[in-house]
Amino acid sequence: MTDKAENVKHVLGLSGGKDSSALAIYMRDNYPNLDIEYFFTDTGEELDEVYEYLNMLEGYLGKPINYLDPQRDFKFWMTQYNNFLPSAQARWCTVRLKLAPFEKWVDEEFLQKGIKVKSYVAIRSDESFREGLQSKKEIETVLPFKENHIDKQAVFEILENSGLGLPKYYEWRSRSGCTFCFFQRKIEWVNLKEHHPEKFEYAKSLDVEYILHEYDDEYKNYVSYFQKNYPQISVYDIINFYKKLPKSVGFLLDVAHLKVSSVSENFNLKDGIIELNKI
Predict the structure, then answer these.
(1) What average pLDDT does the segment 122-141 reach?
(2) pLDDT at residue 254 above 50?
(3) How far apart are CA 94 and CA 135, in angstroms?
(4) In a 10 Å sphere around its CB, with 0-12 CB exposed, 13-18 middle and 19+ buried, how is residue 255 labelled?
(5) 229: number of CA atoms within 13 Å, CB side?
(6) What is the pTM of this model?
(7) Left if phi > 0, otherwise alpha if psi is -120 to 50, otherwise beta: which for 163?
(8) Are 40 and 14 in contact (CB under 8 A)?
(9) I need a labelling partner for 232 at 20 to 30 A (CA). Which of 18, 32, 215, 222 fits?
């Protein structure tokens, strides 16, 4: 629905994190007559706890949350960016999986029909350094927390008073986002391995893909062979070992028919680590 008096559509994006959830609660409680459509852009790589919390939030808001589909998943876009993982300097994940689907949705559903869009964004009053991602579309960004001097402590109070509290993953993680978000601290990677070991292994596989993308098929098959036959060896040790090999020895590792015995005199397996002997 839109604000018929102004022909305006009000939208509020949710990430499954504390700030956007608190903003949704704040707007629902303080502006009950404002018809806001809540949306969540699903990357497909979120924590299970995010979906659980969104279900709870949906009940509190009393209306469904619109799940936007980015159409293409993370791995697709990773190949489009030459297998480079996103970073603080190149946040293609946010642009492709969050901003682009949002812009497409508001453009097709509202802007092309002459409906103005107001987007409510959860930037707090104590985040003067943040401006939020700037859309190229004609969308008015509204910052209720900044306008009403709501800081981090006030966000905690909003969540606590609602009865929802914080999402469970905040017990071991400091932010929402993909399971393998590059903004994670080292301890959060450790916690991910403890709470979601399968997602930690998936993150490792993406890292290995990134490392391997520049190498030829011989090298990739070499790594696959050792991963299969020597699972106790870290893939990173395998990679470092290969880099030390002279090209002539690399040739001997005829990948399709690799026999460890043919090069066994050239390495030792000690405590799961490959050690290169003199060749």
Answers:
(1) 80
(2) no
(3) 12
(4) middle
(5) 11
(6) 0.74
(7) left
(8) yes
(9) 215
